[in-house]
Amino acid sequence: MADKLFKTLLEMQPQDAAAGSAVSKEEKVKAMVDEVMGSLPDSFNVQELMSRVEERTPFISVALQECDRMSMLTNEIRRSLKELDLGLKGDLTITESMEALMNAIFFGTVPASWEKLAYPSLNPLAAWYADLLQRIKELEAWVAEFQLPAVVWLPGLFNPQSFLTAIMQTTARKNEWPLDRMVLTVEVLKKPREECTAPPREGAYIHGLYMEGARWDGNAGCIAESLLKELTPAMPVVFVKAIPVDKRETKGIYECPMYRTRQRGPTYVWTFNLKTKEAPAKWVLAGVAMLLSAE
């Protein structure tokens, strides 16, 4: 799907008018509009999903919120493309917003009206849309029976912070611990994602993380220097669970910030304590961080 979209976008780049067979901008955009309209899944029926919920646990609340956000985004994509399609057919006058949408599609960038309802991303349009479809697929699997996925794709969430908070809320309720006296602790697993066939009894397994400025040494079980040409190596599956703050390890750890994109700054998500055999200052100076996207 992503390859097909990318091919469509490449074909939409300006061509030499002298070639004679050059397709117009409108025709190229129309092809992309048809492609997306034909492949975009139906929006989630959040009311129907809520009616199926017997107990609104923290994890189920996150799933419903994610479906609601996704529906807002897909509704806008569908609405704006239908409107543009009518404009391209001559049934509507092309407005300024339709022109902006057409230009964004033509140049392979995410339209501003979509971006406003989406999540931080540096991807061009084709990769962004392929990623969107994957997010929808993951959500559909989660809400089918409202069972927490065996391994949660954290980058696929609009609000990863709310999911991580839900881990603490779930543990706090179960053990009757005060939420404000709890923290998250992580264990980087050695087993591959395929072997994680069910969620843990407490906490959650997450995947889709990357590291920038260093790498995770699976054999040594700690942060290590980056290998040559490996800018953002993928992290193994991470087991996240909540513990009382006084049980938190403080020695031999690096407080590793996690961001959504390589822009860092406003895309901050959380800080995980990762094991290190070297002084944490080394990783601070190297600007080591985890990312939810390597793009």
UniProtKB/TrEMBL annotation:
<dbReference type="Pfam" id="PF18199">
    <property type="entry name" value="Dynein_C"/>
</dbReference>
<feature type="domain" description="Dynein heavy chain C-terminal">
    <location>
        <begin position="2"/>
        <end position="292"/>
    </location>
</feature>
<protein>
    <recommendedName>
        <fullName>Dynein heavy chain C-terminal domain-containing protein</fullName>
    </recommendedName>
</protein>
<dbReference type="InterPro" id="IPR043160">
    <property type="entry name" value="Dynein_C_barrel"/>
</dbReference>
<dbReference type="InterPro" id="IPR041228">
    <property type="entry name" value="Dynein_C"/>
</dbReference>
<dbReference type="GO" id="GO:0030286">
    <property type="term" value="C:dynein complex"/>
</dbReference>
<dbReference type="GO" id="GO:0007018">
    <property type="term" value="P:microtubule-based movement"/>
</dbReference>
<dbReference type="GO" id="GO:0045505">
    <property type="term" value="F:dynein intermediate chain binding"/>
</dbReference>
<dbReference type="InterPro" id="IPR026983">
    <property type="entry name" value="DHC"/>
</dbReference>
<dbReference type="GO" id="GO:0051959">
    <property type="term" value="F:dynein light intermediate chain binding"/>
</dbReference>
